[in-house]
Amino acid sequence: MRFLTALVALGLIASAPAQAAFPEKDITIVIPYGPGGGFDTLTRKLSPYIEEYFREKSGKSFNKIKVVPKNMPGASGKKAAVYTSKQKPDGYTVQIFNIPGHGLPYIKGENPGYDIEGYSWLNRVGGDSYVVVVSKEGPYKKLDDLVNKSGDLKIPEQGPGSTSNMANRITWSTLGKGGEYIYGYKSSRDYTTAVLRGDGDVTMLASGSAKRYNKGGDYNILAHFADKVDPAFPGAVNGKDIGHPELHSLGLLRIIAGPAGMSKDVMDEWNNALSYAVNHPDIQAWSAKTGNPVKAYDTTAETRKALMDTLNYFKKFRAVF
Known about the structure:
The chain is α/β, with parallel strands linked by helices.
């Protein structure tokens, strides 16, 4: 025993290598949709503050670390989710997820090539409620005009896996109205512009996105499914007004997650970085000005719970999808 101790003291027996600090190189945040939409806008807004945390606020010196947003649209977000699931669980590639959109296969009992429960869920960064959007120049001035229209509504959308598509399907089936869905648009801005062009009758999108897109007053917001209608949408009704308060549960969560198997230390580091970014005074001021709701959780466990609660709620409407 004395001989072994002496060898260690002399450095003749190598000790276990120290675990590398995180991060030591640039980080990629995958955005599963094209430029200009709500997920893209939020990710790019938060990225400099996540970078700031890793550079300065973590008590370490990472002055050269960059956080790089990367758009990867395709298959209503599935392309990015599959890609992220195959990356190393080292914290250097994470993704902003659309919940419940990315969970639709889970809700339907399908296999999309990724396991929604298996990701390393890091923190929520945002969430929003949904609004019903039509062109100001179109024939629809109130929600009843859409419900009473003869035939199905034409509804531009990104694709069948998007959260807005899920919201549309639940809303119009609840109101007894059929829909003809027009897919292929890369972002919420694209499919909302399609409504403005007259390619469709109506669509739904997050309220924060609606505020940004409607600065010119080109759209009418006929409904806002929230407990309190935002003052930015005068004349809009909510679910309670039309006898369907359950429609207020159609909101979305924007959550950052990495591949399965990330270490607890790296997950906690990410949770702290995202909390720092979301609660930064600049981000809070931007949120108040633009109406883009931002929120972070205290722990990764709280994040996972919110994920599962949301997915299990939407499971109740499996037949609609």
